[in-house]
Structure formats: C-alpha cells, structure tokens
C-alpha cells in the first residue's frame, strides 16, 4: 500500500476483515486500492469532485456534520427525574446499544452486514466503558440509556426503546453537557450524520452550531 493508505486495526478486529483509510484521494492512491482486498474509507470536502472515486469503485455512504457548543451558549432543559451515574452494568448498556445506530455509516453500507455494524458499536461502547468514559442515564430511577464521550467530544448516546420518542433526550444531553463543562471544557463537539434529523434538531435546540461537513465514501474489495 502507499503511504497515503493506512490500516485501521480497530475496525479490522470488529469486522474480521482488512480495513483501511485513505489520507489522500489522488489517482495514484486510488489506483493502489484496485487489487487489494479489504474495506476502504475516504473522507472528502462535500464540494470536491467525486469523479475519480466513482471511477475506482468507491460509493457514497454518509455526510458527517460537526456541531459544537460553547459553555455560555448552552440552552438547557431541566427535569428533576434525570440522573447520570457512573454505576454501570455494561451488559445492560450493550442491550441498549445494539441496533440503536442505523444512521451510522457502516449500517448504511450495503457491503457490511447489520450484525457486523452492530458489533462495531458494541465493541466501541465496551472499550469506552473500560476507559471510564460512559455515563448511565436514569429516568425516575430506571435505566434509560447511556452517554459516552472522550474529553470534550460526545461520541455515543442512545436511549432504550421505552424512552425514545418522549422528548427526553434534551434533558439527558443537558445534564451530560453540564457535567462535561464542569470538567473545565469551554466547548463541546460531536459528529452527526446529516440524515439523522432527530439528532440535528436536538443539538440545535441545545444551542449547538454547525462547523465543517465531510462526505464519507467506502469501497469493499472482497
């Protein structure tokens, strides 16, 4: 492989296949993917031409938005029944996680099975749990979901099906954002699929604004 194509061991372990990410999308780099087995990812400016990507077998998967919120801009929503806890049974959280991320780029990749995509998120959640970066969400003392982060970046959040569609996410996010700001961060960031309009509306209501966007293309040589 060229120096512009790097293996991604974490994804490889989750999927059981060789996985790579391209740092560049010039023709020399794309040509190097032609006969190499494995799954490839390339991320590009949405306004950049994708003609070469299509020529070399890459297909569109997602557009990622990158919302951010400064501490003083947070628009909070409060509910006294909300509680965040570090008292975690990770097996319970895995049950919430499994199947919760159908907006994710690997869930939308027709070359990747739903089971493989779910496994990637479950393994990610378990890793974050082992690193102490997960909070359990309780509503009225009942397990409702989880919130996972790394430093000032929100990584994963999901609610149990029983608590979805009830307008509760804004309360959980308020509590979690406050807790992160209390750690000393002045700005929080996250990443959201442009097709996940529920999350787009949620973070907008909380005071997040939108910075960069990036298109994600995949290719799978079996």
- Number of discrete helical segments: 7
Major β-sheet annotation:
7 strands, mixed
Principal-axis shape? globular
**Proportion in β-strands:** 25-35%
Termini gap: 17 Å
Uncertain segments are: none
Q: Which secondary-structure class do the elements indicate?
A: alpha+beta
Number of strands: 11
What letter string, H or E per element, gives the SSE order? EHEHEHEEHHEEEHEEHE
Q: Mean pLDDT, nearest integer?
A: 94
Percent helix, as a range, is: 25-40%
Which descriptors would you attach to this protein?
11 strands; 7 helices; 7-stranded mixed β-sheet; 222 residues; 4-stranded antiparallel β-sheet; alpha+beta
Helix and strand topology:
Layout: E1 5-7, H1 9-15, E2 19-22, H2 27-31, E3 38-44, H3 51-55, E4 59-70, E5 82-85, H4 90-97, H5 114-130, E6 134-139, E7 142-150, E8 153-159, H6 169-182, E9 187-189, E10 192-193, H7 197-205, E11 209-221
Parallel strand pairs: 2-3
Antiparallel strand pairs: 1-2, 3-11, 4-9, 4-10, 4-11, 5-6, 6-7, 7-8
Walk me through the structure:
This protein has 222 residues and is α+β, with helices and mostly antiparallel strands. The chain is built from seven helices and eleven strands. The strands form two sheets. Strands 1, 2, 3, 4, 9, 10 and 11 form a seven-stranded mixed β-sheet that branches. Strands 5-6-7-8 form a four-stranded antiparallel β-sheet, sandwiched between helices. A hairpin with a 2-residue loop joins β6 and β7. The longest helix is centred in the middle third of the chain and has 17 residues. The mean pLDDT is 94.
């Amino acid at each position: 492989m060229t120096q512009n194509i790097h293996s991604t061991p974490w994804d490889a372990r989750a999927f059981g296949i060789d996985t790579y990410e391209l740092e560049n999308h010039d023709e020399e780099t794309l040509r190097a993917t032609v006969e190499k087995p494995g799954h490839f990812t390339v991320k590009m400016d949405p306004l950049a031409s994708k003609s070469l990507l299509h020529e070399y077998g890459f297909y569109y998967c997602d557009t990622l938005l990158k919302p951010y919120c400064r501490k003083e801009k947070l628009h909070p929503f409060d509910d006294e029944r909300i509680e965040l806890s570090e008292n975690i049974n990770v097996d319970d959280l895995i049950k919430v996680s499994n199947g919760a991320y159908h907006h994710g780029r690997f869930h939308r990749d027709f070359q990747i099975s739903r089971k493989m995509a779910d496994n990637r998120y479950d393994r990610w959640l378990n890793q974050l749990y082992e690193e102490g970066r997960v909070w359990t969400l309780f509503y009225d003392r009942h397990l409702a979901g989880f919130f996972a982060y790394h430093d000032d970046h929100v990584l994963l959040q999901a609610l149990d099906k029983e608590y979805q569609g009830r307008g509760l996410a804004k309360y959980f996010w308020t509590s979690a954002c406050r807790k992160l700001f209390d750690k000393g961060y002045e700005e929080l960031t996250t990443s959201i699929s442009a097709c996940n309009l529920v999350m787009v509306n949620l973070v907008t209501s909380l005071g997040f604004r939108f910075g960069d966007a990036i298109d994600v293309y995949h290719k799978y040589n079996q």
